Each structure stands twice: as C-alpha cells, then as structure tokens.
Amino acid sequence: EVELAESGGGSVQAGGSLRLSCAFSGFIGDYAIGWFRQAPGQEREGVSCFSSYDGEKYYAASVKGRFTISIDNAKNTMYLQMSSLKPEDTAVYYCVNFPPYGSRCPTLDNPRSWGQGTQVTVSS
Fold first, then answer.
1. How does DSSP assign 4-44, residue by residue?
2. Residue 84 DSSP code
3. What is the pLDDT of residues 3-17, one digit of tens each?
4. Beta-carbon neighbour count of residue 54 at 10 Å?
5. Percentage of residues in the chain having pLDDT higher than 90
6. Structural Rg of the chain based on CA atoms
7. Is residue 115 within 8 Å of residue 22, measured between CB atoms?
8. Which residues touch 35 (CB under 8 Å, ≥6 apart)?
C-alpha cells in the first residue's frame, strides 16, 4: 500500500518561497508521484508530476517556471520548491500517487491516492 505524508506548509508573503516535502513508501519499482492543490471554494488542481519511468517532470501552466519538483530516492522523499509565490497559490497542497507508467502525468489528473494535505497561505 502506498503511503504519502506531506510537511512544510506555512504562511509567506507574496514573492517569497516555501519548500514542501512528501515522505512516500510502498512503491515497488517505478512510480509516478506529484502534487495537487485545492484553493478555498475551488476544485482540486494538478500542480506537478514526476515519472520515474522516464525521469520526466510535468507542471501546470500556472506554476511552470516558479515551482520545481524533485526526488531524493535515498530518503524516499519528494519535494516541491515554490518560488515567487502569489496570493493565488494559497491552497491546501496534497502529495499524490499517479497511475502507473506516468500515463496521467502530462494531463495531471486521475491521482490514485492522496496524502493528508498541508496548508500554504500567501499574503499580499
């Protein structure tokens, strides 16, 4: 069973940076893992995906160039480095497990399992 646990959320002023972490376990072989977020009153939105099948990284247009996904396999931890944060980045951020082979990474949809979420608040 895949387990995901986020940490690192908090409050920051616009233009600032935060790094989220996701400790993961339960994968056998390759995997596709990433981040979703949900802002108040809005639907959940795919943010980023990393596919270990081919090493590719995918980003939503709204965060591309500002957010960076990375993996430390020695620590079984995924990170989301968020820079140039905007108030519209305020949301609960979830670590997610995407379907096998990274098939849903390009479209950032249909995650299979979720962490508990961590709050990110960006003030103007």
1. EEEE--EEEETT--EEEEEEEE---S--EEEEEEE-TTS--
2. S
3. 999 999 999 999 999
4. 10
5. 94
6. 13
7. yes
8. 20, 22, 46, 47, 48, 49, 69, 80, 93, 94, 95, 96
Say how far apart CA 53 and CA 103 lie, in whole Å: 10
Please return the burial class of 14, using the count of CB atoms within 10 Å of its CB with bins 0-12, 13-18 and 19+: middle
Question: With bands split at pLDDT 50, 70 and 90, how would you rate the model's confidence at 102?
Answer: confident
By C-alpha distance, which of 37, 20, 16 is closest to 84? Answer: 16
- Identify the pLDDT of residue 28: 87
Residue 85: strand, helix, or coil: coil
**Percent of the chain with pLDDT strictly greater than 70:** 100
Closest CA relative to residue 54, chosen from 30, 20, 36: 30
Tokens for 46?
A: 């795919």
Taking the C-alpha atoms of residue 9 and residue 119, their distance in angstroms, rounded to an integer, is 5
| pLDDT in the model for residue 50 | 97
